[in-house]
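Justification of resources, computational component.

The compute hours requested in this renewal are based largely on the per-chain cost of generating structure records like the one below. Each record pairs the submitted sequence with a full structure-token output. That output is archived, and it is also reused by downstream analysis tasks.
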Amino acid sequence: MLRDLTREELLQKHHELVEELFNLRLRKRVQEINNPLNLRSMRRELARIETVLREDELEIRSVARPEGSK
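The structure output for this chain reads:
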């Protein structure tokens, strides 16, 4: 689940997904892609990651922290 990941893991996953989405869009322009629904699912996954990152910025997201620390 995305909310269980750390900020660094989310940023890494975001970066990988952006690259993969770019490559898929490029392939779509050049040739027919096997599963066009992959574009939709990638965009949605990217939006989910960005939402969790934004929640983290606004300190809305509760992150599992060790006891005794803020």
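The chain has one domain: 2-57. Residues 11 and 18 are 11 Å apart (CA to CA).
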